[in-house]
Amino acid sequence: MRITRQFVAGGSRRYDTGVPKTPYFGPGLFTFLRELATHNEREWFARHKTRYFEQVRDPMLAFIGSVGPRLEKISPQITADPRPQGGSFFRIHRDLRFSRDKRPYKTHAGAHFRHGAGRNVHAPGMYLHLEPGEVLAAAGIWHPASRELGLIRDAIVDDPELWRKIRRLPPSLQFGGELLKRAPKGYDPEHPLIDDLKRKDFYCVVHFDETQALEAQFMTRFVRAMRSASPLMHFLCDALDLPW
After folding, report:
1. For labeling, which of 25, 69, 172, 177 is most exposed (least CB within 10 Å)?
2. What is the DSSP letter of 15?
3. Positions in the chain whose pLDDT score sits under 50
4. What pTM does this model have?
5. Dist. CA 124–CA 63, nearest whole Å
């Protein structure tokens, strides 16, 4: 493991803070998702599929394509893939195989900007979520596998001083995720950072409102939030022996 302290105070990379002249998202995105929540049926969606493409999918794909170069300036390991399928954009269809909830469609639009070494949402990455009443961005790792979770916890134990610096997030960012009720096996229940060692997820979140998502400067706000979260991403990548 190659934990480094150099990234805590920020690197020497320069960031593009230019503001697009027009917004990527229009009010029709939230209007469509609200109506979809009321009419979550295949027949309704089929009648309004063109609206979905024009108001939800295509604007999100345009955002993904444009934000990619900016995220690369935070880390060249972050991937922004604007393909309609198999890329950063989450499909609107829900996975119903193991769910009692048989509603066919998600009522939000999401994009996951993966680390190049990750094949799924369980690798370190960045995330954008657009839903009526809940607009947020997140960075970190969600539900890592047991091996990866152990490596992250070991990194905290190995360098608690560094982790304390990492966890001092800017006021706009908050840690999210689930915690164990008891200390994980193999870790001292009296450890001063036991609350962090109980974490099952290691990610931070910044919340926006719908009005902000519809503004031209929303992409700049998103990138700034992800840049603020980069020390946590760097820590996680070092713990998992991944490049950053």
Report:
1. 69
2. -
3. 1-4, 6-7, 9-17
4. 0.89
5. 20
